[in-house]
């Protein structure tokens, strides 16, 4: 009897172990996918650009057989997210999901739009965005579990960018309202893209030119460090719109009184106040991280460099700054990602950038025009964060090897 009972218990334990356990994040993503399929429209159809839209579920947005196929793929991915823990399988499932819904959104536009109707607009709706979010989070989770190195992360970013470029070049999304908005504004889109990058990158570069010396001086002189960091912290607490407004009056006065300033393009509104505001916002992370990075250089390393006969300047350039560079670069990363987002607000004072489309879309109640400005901003910030994170990892390895 004891033997039979032991065998029964053992078989029961084996059967329990064979039941897959729920993955916590995956179960949340599966629930999100279920909401997207059952309770949220996949696309929105509008008779013209500005009227209220009519939501269409995924089953109604495509012909019956493709719709069933896409739904089956999505449900399989939901099961995989909830129960499968292997990172490569989860990554493949996420990629398959994106490969299914992205072309499906474009196909649905041509399917629901009447033939010959040039006024109708079809946009991805809540269900599409929820599915895209779920699959992107599943991919991010899989990549985190794989613990990819910096070069592998850069390769993954390049593959994702190539896939998006291929989707756009294929024409699969040409019937969507977002691409129609782009087609009507292609020239201005790239002009505002250049302005956006100039504001974000230029102000960050100026902040590095000023912030690095300030950080070095702050590291050397404690009283200066406290004063500078407190002043920059106060600037950081000022809302961006308020800071843009504060700069309008002095810059307008400067342009009126100094002809050279006006000739250089400095005015009360436009790119100048936006550039200066972004520059001021960028100073705090650059200065603070420079001070922190230099403070973290081991004293033993500095003593060794002093013992080798290096001067104070040589110690700074050859020893301290290289070892502090990963921390300094982390501050530059914060400044760049912050500037790419804040540059959108510059459109409110005539600074240009992708915010031009965002605020035009809000004024016209045209969500696709808002997305035309918002999506590139998010994509640039995301790509900048990944690239600089990879560079930080590489510099940390180099600093560790030197140490």
Short description:
With 403 residues, the protein is mainly α. Helices cover 79% and strands 3% of the residues. It folds into two domains: 153 residues, no CATH class; 217 residues, MetI-like fold (Orthogonal Bundle).
Protein described:
It is a single chain. With 403 residues, the chain is mainly alpha-helical. It contains 17 helices and three strands. Helix 2 (24-38) packs antiparallel against helix 6 and helix 16 runs antiparallel to helix 17 (367-402). It is flat. It comes from Microvirga flocculans.
CATH architecture of the largest domain: Orthogonal Bundle
The SSE string, one letter per element, is HHEEHHHEHHHHHHHHHHHH
Low-confidence stretches: none
Q: What composes the largest sheet?
A: 3 strands, antiparallel
**Rg estimate, integer Å:** 27 Å
The named CATH superfamily of the largest domain: MetI-like
Biggest sheet: strand arrangement: 2-1-3
Number-wise, the strands total 3
Shape: flat
The count of helical stretches stands at: 17
Tell me the CATH topology of the largest domain. Answer: MetI-like fold
The level of helicity is over 70%
What do the pLDDT scores average to?
A: 86
Domains counted in the coordinates: how many? 2
